[in-house]
Amino acid sequence: MASEEDLDKLLNHLPFFLKEHLIIHPQKQKLIEIVIDLGRRPEARFLTGPEYLSQKIISWQDLEFITKRITKFSNENRAGIERTLHRISCIRNRQFLITGLTCRVGRAIFGTISLARDLLESGKSILILGKPGVGKTTIIREIARVLSDEMEKRVIIVDTSNEIAGDSDVPHSGIGRARRMQVTQTDLQHQVMIEAVENHMPQVIIIDEIGTELEALAARTIAEKGVQLVGTTHGICLENLIKNPPLTDLIGGIQYVTLSDDEAKRRGTQKSILERKAYPAFQIAIEINEQNVWTIHEDVQNSIDHLLRGTSMITQVRTIGKNKNLSLTYKNLYTTSLFKSSFNPTSPNLSRTSWNSLNSETQLKKPILQSKNLVIYLYSLSYNLVREVFTKLGINLILTRDIKKATIIIGLKKSIQKNQKLKNLATQHNIIIYAVNRSSSYQIAKLFQFLVF
């Protein structure tokens, strides 16, 4: 990967004793940000870790020296340096005086999108998730350049904090031929998104940090107009969006549905379940696990449905190695339950639980089970319900869908008694069968407490 940066322009805005130290620093190219707080020693944060830059304590004069040489701070307490991607954020006291600065180094890095270039060519809308500082803005800046320069598409960037194209009326060259629309106030971002579509006929809209319900709704409106979207939002994985009500429109929205008794029994779930309301605004999702490790969901609709049902799904993991070679692997993940209940594992009602072993020749010996890992095969029990009990009790057990890999089978007594084939298979592989009378959190919790604790 190649990078283009104007680090010297940032250093020229710092007091001489900081500039002098950083210019000759051996890790200068790995600098992430500089932290300058009143009454403290200045600190630099590198990819390798933090480091103090001087023994000198920062004074009011040092802060004033910097603030007089940069652009004015916005309502979000952010400023920049003309024709660069650097961002300077301030901390104010109760009198609104600046007492701290965070100078973040902005870099236009070329080649970051090599992990997902084929996804851009598909023409589908792409949502990028990652925790703060993982490089989402750098990635969408490179996406803007590739789409506008190499694929010759009409690209509009909605730049709220001026991080994508820099804090200047003339956008940074890192975005290529893409056009940039600045947002005067953060709470007006959704209006600028709609304005971009209605006034400038783009083929692609790029948005950084979608964070409110209005912005999510605007994204859905744009998607329904046939415009390709590329956006970022904070979150580690898709499940974070499901649990974040303002942003659920990005992945189709979530609603509670009450099933009939027959349908709930057929699905093996509770009667009240979560389901997706509509088609997602984004068809592809990229989870940025690390800088060179991405998890790809090529069908967001399918992934969300699996997450809501608590069933397994296959995800694609793409990695760039040290030799710059791309490797692609597939992982079969068992998703966790997203249903909530009032179940309390310490409830005295647990003492009324009844369960028993259906093995005629094998007795359940607790010391033996404690000495090895339990791999559990569930029969006629909801995976969501059992995983919820795992979480409440803090138990780390393994569920399997391959009965031959199981060390124990747990199911409803009535269902197991009718299945002679299951009992014969358990006897053949020396697997213990345990049955509960009812599919309830209390009975399952009581059983697991006996097996593990």
Tags for this entry?
single chain; 453 residues; alpha/beta; Beta-Lactamase; Rossmann fold; 3 domains; six-stranded antiparallel beta sheet; 24 strands; 28% strand; plastid; AAA+ ATPase domain-containing protein; Spore_III_AA_AAA+_ATPase; P-loop_NTPase
Please characterize this protein's 3D structure.
Helices cover 29% and strands 28% of the residues. Strand 18 and strand 19 form a beta hairpin. Residues 337-372 have low confidence and may be disordered. With 453 residues, the protein is an alpha/beta fold. The protein folds into 3 domains: 2-107, Beta-Lactamase (2-Layer Sandwich); 111-334, P-loop containing nucleotide triphosphate hydrolases (Rossmann fold); 348-452, Rossmann fold (3-Layer(aba) Sandwich). The protein is elongated and about 80 Å long. A 9-stranded mixed beta sheet has the order 11-10-12-13-9-16-17-18-19, sandwiched between helices. Strands 4-3-2-7-6-5 form a 6-stranded antiparallel beta sheet, with no helix packed on it. It comes from Cerataulina bicornis. Keywords: ATP-binding, Chloroplast, Nucleotide-binding, Plastid.
